[in-house]
Amino acid sequence: MVDSLxxxxxxxxxxxAGAAAVLPAAAVEADAQGASDGDASAxxxxxxxxxxxxxxxxxxxxxxxxxxxxxxxxxxxAANGVSSPKPWFLAGGEPQKPEVVRTGNKATLRxxxxxxxxxxxxxLLRFLDEAGKTLLQESARVPRRYVPTEVxxxxxxxxxxxxxxDALEGxxxxxxxxxxxxxxRGTVVELAQANANVSIPLxxxxxxxxxxxxxxxxxxxxxxxxxxxxLTAEAxxxxxxxxFYGPSIDRVIRIYRAMTGAAPLFGRWAYxxxxxxxxxxxxxxxxxxxxxxxxxxxxxxxxxxxWFWWKLQGDPQYSADYLKxxxxxxxxxxxxxxxxxxxMISVWAKFDTxxxxxxxxxxxxxxIPGTDIYDATNPAARDYYxxxxxxxxxxxxxxxxxxxxxxxxxxxxxxxxxLDHLQLSxxxxxxxxxxxxxxxxxxxxxxxxxxxxRKRVFILxxxxxxxxxxxATTVWSGxxxxxxxxFRRQISAGLNFQMSGLPYWTTDIAGYGWPYERDTNDPxxxxxxxxxxxxxxxxxxxxxxxxxxxDANELFSYGPRAPILIAxxxxxxxxxxxxxxxxxxxxxxxxxxQRGLPMDWPSDRRVRDIGDEFMFGPAFLVAPVTEPGAKxxxxxxxxxxxxxxxxTGQRLNAGQTIxxxxxxxxxxLYVRAGSIVxxxxxxxxxxxxxxxxxxxxxxxxxxxxxxxxxxxxxYDYEKGLRRTVAMHWDDAARTxxxxxxxxxxxxxxxxxxxxxxxxxxxxxxxTESPATIDGEAAYEGKSIRVASS
Length: 789
What we know:
disordered N terminus, 12 helices, 8-stranded antiparallel β-sheet, 18% helix, 28% strand
């Protein structure tokens, strides 16, 4: 899956543990200048797996884990010792013996792609690429600091690492935050889980490197002073971080996922339309709404049952009110399945203290002391949670789970780092305050996989941590307000989340509700909903949710704006062959579907602060409209051979800023020259196999695309039961080549009708198929060429 990335080169949990420094309980505040030893130079020792730098009371261990991965552990103690578990990493290989060259007061650790220059006088580190260009360097003022602290009875350190960043680099990632900032330069970001803020201690740079701050402790990213980037962890043994080198941001993310886990493929239905509101009050409501979608021929794949379906929260029994209109929930689910509609249910990590499961788990020691939350860091508690709650729901026939409030949140006004002062099974809550969503979703994912491989895991949740992409989760942006300001900020929040290495993200279209509930009949709110929905069509997962004052949230409840919403829903379904192929790339190649512009144009300084445009896969440039009543908006078209206006087919020059008209029924949308975009027919659900493909080509450059298909669900694709077809556009010959199909799967159509459309002004534009096509052929698995007439 990651071909050139040899998984064996990465640390196992035990190897990572062995690389950390043991810190004496009585250590006093120290910095990298080795104040206790005056101006003494540093000493350097080469071992079989690392280089060890000692200066005064401080020891820095630098390990090579591959040509593009460096691990640094620095502390006020011995070079090697015991570190706490780090469950975000997967098993891998051992560190490699470093190559070290010494010259005077400097030593250089080299790999084929990276080098670390070590100043033996000052103890400073500088990271360089293979050409000798500086990527990252420590600050000469106080590069590292360790402040002794006692937290929950444990003697630890508050650690600080300071770098001197490049004046012009852009920095992205760190999870999802609601400030509206895209480039994180100049910001302070608290890395502690909270509703609507997801903390991922990984950032990427336009210089081509990434840095993983290797702790689950409450931390801070602080770049208020332009020439100082300070990383702080509140409760740690030592400074611990990894430097990855791409040089592309995509490559950095590939390295991260090779270390922490690949993102599995969801069922094809998960990439369709997800209908939700706060809340449907019975299984009959789900049936009625799904029936209305089918009756009105509006595409739909997933209905969501939000909270308060339960008799007592934490027990699997339904309330009497929920069952009254339709007492057999399993029968309702079977009925939905007959209509090719899937169903998700919301289940929390919180328990009513009167519930059976709470009292039993408390008796067994599975509840976090002082809370009503089960301890997801305890393997036995995760087993109980599945057997007595989630597994019961799974057996009823639910297709997906919504793991809400996964920070976790305690309903006493606390939402920020609530585990900080508590004791967890895995250890001190101050060490592990951010890890809960990883362990919670991991327990559900792993038990689901052990229970069945016939249905792919699909988990929606509100928080995340390093490695969580391997648990088949989609994170949504939390309980946000339905306002234009909030909408604008979702775009940069989502892009930074995905540039943190986690590929699946979504948002409550037009906001959750409280404390600003809106009415679907309000024309102003209808405009906001339309603009937000247009954006949602180009998110990895398309999902509407929220509480409206008139208790409605279906597409057809938005009055005269409903036809626009339905048209964009249909566009999403036409794009499913393209989207599902991108999803395969996410799984197979560690790809990122929704892409901040610096991912594709890292050297273009004009895109550094553009957080309201993005690429959707390799073809589409999307520029959502985020101002009420907007008649136009400014759009920057990055460097390419050319761009095409999706709605008109007009060819536009790249490298320019244009003023684009923005009628309400369109979102500014452009396609890069050389793109191949496979489109399907408008269908009512994603379950059916594609038997006819409209292949749109945007001429001006040669292009390639890999079309992917499989049975749509189950994990048979992991066993090779899938098909990929390489497509190539020869621009000079104006010919599309479809290569020989690789692989087969049960139910695969043996013959697919290909309709070639070469886009031009007024031809092949917009959602509808053109009246005339430019070529057609029958594809039966053998290589064919389709020439444009």
